[in-house]
């Protein structure tokens, strides 16, 4: 029995990941669906042609269907096409080829989740093996597989057919006990819903069973007759003929020859009728046989073409997959590049912003620092100007009224003014050093003279406290060395004045000793030693900090608390360090080493000549707008036995200098209208080359360069020690 299935709707397509392919895929799915429908139609037509005996047409249609099914790469349609082809071959007893094509059909069906299809193809294979008597056992195996798929698809009619086929095959092999089991299982279904064919088979098989197994002849005959009746009433001639055949065998087996003869006659009649019906088909057989061979060849060609196409498809699939992977990799790379770029940009932006902020902060800091410096410098200037007046006037009073030398209030006034001046100077210096603006200067100088000067200028402090004050200098130290004399003197003055302040009725000694001469440098060890109150060990570190004063008693030793802080920074400038050795009530020794270079010139030419100048009466022009300062400066000059001429402005000064001749001009810088620089410049332009010394409350460093450019010869900072001013004047005159 050959079976055909109605074609099923095609499967839903897989969803592809790559978006760009989706569109193409959608169009393909549509056209594919149509093509599949067409192929299904062809297979159905082939089935119809087969049923109506048009085998040639059936074969033609199913081979065409196969070609198109291959193109579609549709296993379902391929399996169906092969199944249809195999059916025609089987019909023409080409059992081997039928098996070959059914096997191919089964191969393609196996990959599908389609139980009815697998059921049918297995059943068809079982038929070939059984009915062609190629291998009945194998036939049973295929029937059992078919039964398995029929059960899976829950098709009771197919289950019954499979079981009837299994029973039939077992009976053929004489294994009645095995076969009957399957037959009994069909009883229920066949009685209720069985088709005439299955009812006929069922009764016929029961007849056989009773003939051969139970030997119940009566029962056997009853079943045969029942089967024949069903066959005849339903015109199932082929089946009826086979029952007659079995019935004849039964009668012969039980030696009822006469009855057998009459039944055989009926059978022969039927057989000849069947034979005559089959004749035309038989006659065509040879012609069809030739065509079948041709078809077989064509099919082989189709298959090999398909094989090649499949290979191509597989290759192109591999290429597609590789391309896909490459594309994905590239996409990831591009994405990563993009991310990195974004990250870098962000980082750059952040860095730029941070830089800008830093730059802005730096500018603000610089501005602030400049403002601070400017502020301190202005404040110092503004303080120094009136201080010049206070100190100068105090000196004048004491000078003119000798009876007031020991006046307490006057001395307090002088002390306070000096203290204020010290403070201003210290703060200014500290500020400059913190700004790192201070650099060492190098000039030739005499260390011997320097120590002498220090001793002279601090002698009054020593006397105040009843101290002996000594300076000891190593004769090994050359007469002149090269270095920053001013900074060294600042260090020594600070240390020595402290020693003198914190010692009563004791002894203070400054020592300079040559340590070594190395790399063309004199390394000189300095010590400032006293036997005063000493410094507690715990305080020895602190005293170098700013504004630190230990156990300061009201009205006690004076000072700003900046002295040692300045000393420490100055010594740093010399690339050296200071050490302290002190014990309370025993005394203190500060020690440090400074390297000086060899002097460039060995003898000091100025000193003796300068001294010669003392005593000569000079004409001095003082250019000063401040009345108090005019008065102070005038007094200083006249007290030293010189003549003073005053000019209150730049213009007045120029006029005076043009009319009269002066030995020296003392020029204030900060004047309303024409300032000291411009006045000097004008004088120089007018051919007046009288030495000009600028008197300023500014820091010397701040004005030196501008002063030199204007033609000013030297600068002295107010308030000043009168002796210093005169020394400067003599120096200028000597140069002149
Ligand atoms: P000041 O202006 O107070 O002298 P310094 O910085 O020079 O400030 O000194 C800080 C403090 O160190 C002083 O106030 C004092 O207590 C202590 N000191 C400095 N030198 C000596 C010394 N030679 N003997 C005792 N104490 C000293």
From TrEMBL:
CDD domains named in the record: HATPase_EvgS-ArcB-TorS-like (cd16922), HisKA (cd00082), REC_hyHK_CKI1_RcsC-like (cd17546)
Residue ranges annotated for the Response regulatory domain, each copy included: 619-733
Catalytic reactions on record: ATP + protein L-histidine = ADP + protein N-phospho-L-histidine
EC top class named in words: transferase
This protein's name: histidine kinase
Species whose genome carries this gene: Flavobacterium pallidum
PROSITE patterns in alphabetical order: HIS_KIN, RESPONSE_REGULATORY, TPR
Coiled coil start-end: 285-312, 344-374
Keyword line: Coiled coil, Kinase, Membrane, Phosphoprotein, TPR repeat, Transferase, Transmembrane, Transmembrane helix
TPR repeats: 79-112
Residue ranges annotated for the Histidine kinase domain, each copy included: 378-598
GO molecular function: phosphorelay sensor kinase activity
Modified residues (4-aspartylphosphate): 668
One Pfam match: HisKA
The EC number(s) this enzyme carries: 2.7.13.3
Record field: transmembrane: 319-338
InterPro entries on file: CheY-like_superfamily, HATPase_C_sf, HATPase_dom, His_kinase_dom, HisK_dim/P_dom, HisK_dim/P_sf, Sig_transdc_His_kin-like_C, Sig_transdc_resp-reg_receiver
């Amino acid at each position: 029995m050959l079976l055909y299935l109605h074609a099923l709707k095609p499967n839903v397509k897989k969803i592809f990941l790559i978006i760009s392919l989706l569109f193409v895929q959608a169009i393909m799915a549509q056209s594919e669906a149509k093509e599949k429908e067409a192929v299904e139609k062809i297979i159905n037509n082939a089935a119809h042609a087969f049923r109506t005996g048009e085998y040639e047409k059936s074969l033609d249609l199913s081979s065409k269907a196969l070609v198109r099914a291959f193109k579609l790469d549709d296993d379902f349609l391929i399996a169906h096409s092969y199944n249809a082809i195999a059916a025609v071959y089987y019909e023409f007893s080409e059992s081997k080829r039928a098996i070959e094509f059914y096997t191919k059909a089964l191969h393609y069906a196996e990959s599908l989740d389609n139980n009815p299809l697998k059921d049918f193809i297995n059943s068809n294979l079982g038929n070939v093996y059984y009915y062609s008597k190629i291998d009945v056992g194998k036939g049973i195996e295929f029937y059992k597989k078919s039964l398995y798929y029929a059960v899976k698809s829950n098709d009771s009619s197919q289950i019954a057919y499979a079981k009837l086929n299994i029973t039939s095959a077992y009976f053929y092999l004489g294994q009645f006990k095995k076969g009957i089991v399957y037959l009994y299982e069909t009883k229920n279904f066949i009685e209720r819903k069985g088709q005439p064919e299955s009812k006929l088979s069922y009764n016929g098989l029961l007849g056989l069973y009773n003939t051969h197994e139970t030997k119940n002849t009566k029962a056997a005959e009853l079943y045969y007759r029942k089967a024949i009746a069903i066959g005849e009433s339903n015109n199932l001639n082929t089946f009826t003929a086979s029952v007659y055949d079995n019935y004849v065998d039964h009668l012969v087996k039980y030696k009822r020859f006469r009855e057998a003869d009459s039944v055989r006659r009926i059978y022969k009649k039927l057989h000849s009728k069947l034979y005559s019906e089959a004749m035309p088909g038989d006659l065509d057989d040879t012609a069809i046989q030739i065509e079948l061979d041709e078809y077989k060849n064509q099919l082989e060609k189709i298959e090999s073409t398909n094989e090649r196409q499949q290979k191509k498809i597989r290759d192109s699939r591999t290429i597609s997959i590789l391309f896909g992977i490459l594309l994905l990799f590239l996409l990831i790379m591009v994405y990563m590049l993009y991310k990195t770029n974004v990250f870098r940009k962000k980082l750059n932006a952040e860095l730029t912003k941070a830089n800008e902020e830093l730059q802005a902060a730096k500018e603000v800091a610089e501005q602030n620092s400049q403002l601070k410096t400017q502020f301190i410098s202005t404040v110092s200037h503004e303080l120094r100007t009136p201080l010049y007046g206070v100190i100068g006037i105090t000196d004048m009073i004491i000078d003119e009224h000798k009876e007031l030398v020991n006046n307490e209030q006057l001395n307090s006034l002088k002390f306070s003014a000096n203290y204020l001046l010290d403070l201003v100077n210290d703060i200014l210096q500290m500020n400059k050093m913190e700004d790192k603006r201070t650099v060492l200067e190098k000039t030739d100088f005499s260390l011997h003279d320097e120590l002498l000067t220090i001793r002279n200028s601090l002698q009054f402090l020593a006397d105040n406290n009843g101290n002996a004050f000594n300076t000891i200098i190593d004769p090994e130290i050359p007469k002149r060395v090269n270095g920053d004399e001013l900074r060294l003197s600042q260090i020594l003055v600070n240390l020595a004045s402290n020693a003198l302040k914190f010692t009563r009725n004791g002894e203070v000694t400054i020592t300079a000793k040559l340590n070594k001469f190395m790399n063309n440098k004199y390394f000189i060890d300095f010590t400032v030693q006293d036997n005063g109150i000493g410094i507690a060990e715990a305080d020895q570190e602190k005293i170098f900090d700013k504004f630190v004063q230990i156990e300061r008693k009201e009205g006690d030793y004076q000072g700003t608390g900046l002295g040692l802080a300045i000393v420490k920074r100055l010594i740093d400038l010399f690339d050296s360090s200071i050490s302290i050795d002190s014990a309370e009530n025993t005394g203190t020794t500060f020690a440090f080493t400074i390297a000086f270079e060899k002097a460039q010139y060995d003898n000091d030419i100025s000193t003796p000549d300068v001294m010669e100048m003392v005593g000569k009466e000079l004409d001095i022009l003082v250019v000063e707008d401040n009345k108090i300062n005019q008065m102070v400066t005038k007094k200083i000059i006249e007290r030293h036995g010189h003549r003073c001429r005053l000019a209150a402005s730049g213009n007045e000064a120029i006029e005076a200098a043009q009319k009269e001749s002066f030995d020296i001009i003392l020029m204030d810088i900060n004047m309303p209208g024409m300032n000291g620089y411009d006045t000097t410049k004008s004088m120089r332009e007018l051919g007046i080359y009288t030495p000009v010394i600028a008197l300023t409350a500014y820091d010397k460093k701040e004005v030196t360069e501008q002063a030199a450019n204007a033609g000013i010869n030297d600068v002295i900072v107010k308030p000043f020690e009168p002796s210093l001013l005169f020394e400067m004047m003599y120096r200028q005159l000597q140069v002149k």
